[in-house]
Amino acid sequence: MTTHLDPVALIGLGAALCSMSSFVPQLIKIWREGDASAVSLRMFALTVAGFTLWAVYGVLRGGWPLVLSNLVCLGLSAAILISKTILERRSA
């Protein structure tokens, strides 16, 4: 059995890894500093909505790599959104 690395799949994998890893530094910074004042609530609400729609799209198209990567991004961006909301309520 040979393993063939499809260039299109590699591009998708690269895109997924970039998207998933882009949220981690922001989330770590929020948790360490206990401050999410620089985070835009509207932008992250829109981001969460977008990843939700991408995941649903992936389910409907049967593209499980698309679903899984967007669920990871959804979880990370939702964690940032929830942290922002909690921290704002505490400081109010």
TrEMBL record:
The keyword Membrane applies. The chain crosses the membrane at residues 6-28, 40-60, 66-87. It is a multi-pass membrane protein. One of its GO terms (cellular component) is membrane. It is found in: Membrane. InterPro entries: PQ-loop_rpt. The keyword Transmembrane applies. Coiled coil: none annotated. SMART domains: CTNS. Keywords: Membrane, Transmembrane, Transmembrane helix. This is Glutathione synthetase.
